[in-house]
Design a protein that fits this description.
homotrimer; alpha/beta; seven-stranded mixed sheet; 6 helices; 7 strands; 45% helix; globular; nucleotide-binding (chains A, B, C); EC 2.7.7.62 (chains A, B, C); EC 2.7.1.156 (chains A, B, C)
């Protein structure tokens, strides 16, 4: 059975919508684990748009940093949608936390889950090399995270123009 | 029958060449609907290079804004190649026109076409998040457009290194 | 038999690791043709990380510019991994060399190889259009190179989250 899934794609490619469909197909009482924080107006607008798109029936958990804790607390209560890993990584980096340790923890936690987990991530490494070192470090970290979580999950889909390409 | 197709990919991935092949296979007397305007030398050079690549036998229609009108006027006269949707969207945004209404119109117009339409679009959302808000808005709009048109067409191809990956 | 392969993907997508696996499967005594030069600390760090990842058993040839020469000198001695074409292109551009002639030479040289060659390249054209003309020229040249080499090889893989999508 496919218990762990990773959904990737570019900005506004339809990743979240596709991931929501996967989660709904995995069981009743879906749980939305939001890693985003409404720190400015643009982000608030994005969060509200996602909420509208999901529709009713979701239990929402907000967890910008302790994703492993959120997964452990919600296991056994329904399929989970984590949206998204790249924002979580960015939150960790802003707090100067140990990325490597966090990814090792997440991999271990994922393997121990009994209820399904679908995670949304982003393709950020297919543009021109960024000018500034921080952006380069961020895109490298996103790529490394996607490889590492991609090795643990049962399926990977790349969403293009709203449609999935099965990768794993 | 596949009457409507969307071809996407990165810059210089071979999208246009692949789309031209699709259109030629769909019937004689192909029509090229160009959304680009030769506003500067670089753009003139790109337009000339595309013209050379297509070779003879194409009827060219230039239409930077009223894409629905161009489709309606050319329906029944041959298969159409629209190159490209992202430039059209950029033209609409520069004129401050209603994107949502334009996409609704385009979806309706496409569904009513009797001759084939192949549209070229671009992947612009797989790099690092842009610094400036206008670029973020543009890449979000491109993504939303690709999802919306992707829902209407019969097939979607992602072109990578000159070769198509069938998405839909 | 698949003698020539092109492996593409975004930054840190797992391209090199996948390409290394392909080369190892193609024969004993693999040869690593490195196009990178350790011009600064960040690049030295990246080169060292790739070296560690490959592990022992590779013969390394450093060749930032004369890739055709390196291929000719190593033919018949084992399968080759070229990592990567985009850095090679960037080296050519920095020396103001003729890109078109270099790509024609490379295509001819590749067709004449008797031992396998796996080449790593990068997707750099799926972000927002860059502000500066040099970056636009570079991403156009990368795309054109990927199309041209993509036409010569027997297989193309797009690596996403560490996993390959077969393109050709």
């Amino acid at each position: 059975m496919e218990n762990l899934a990773l959904v990737t794609g570019g900005a506004k490619s339809g990743k979240s919508r596709f991931a929501e469909g996967l989660v709904r197909a995995m069981g009743a009482q879906p749980i939305y684990i939001a890693t985003a924080e409404a720190l400015d107006e643009e982000m608030s607008h994005r969060i509200a748009a996602h909420l509208l798109q999901r529709g009713p029936g979701w239990h929402t958990v907000e967890e910008p940093l302790d994703l492993c804790g959120a997964l452990q607390r919600t296991d056994g209560r329904g399929p989970r949608l984590v949206d998204c890993l790249t924002l979580w990584l960015s939150n960790l980096m802003m707090q100067d936390l140990d990325i490597d340790a966090a990814l090792a923890d997440l991999s271990q936690t994922l393997k121990a889950q009994t209820s399904p987990v679908v995670m949304v991530t982003n393709e950020v490494g297919s543009g021109i090399v960024p000018d500034n070192a921080l952006a380069r470090a961020y895109r490298d970290s996103c790529g490394a995270m996607n490889q590492r979580i991609g090795a643990v999950v049962d399926r990977i889909d790349l969403v293009v123009c709203g449609h999935p390409l099965r990768v794993k």
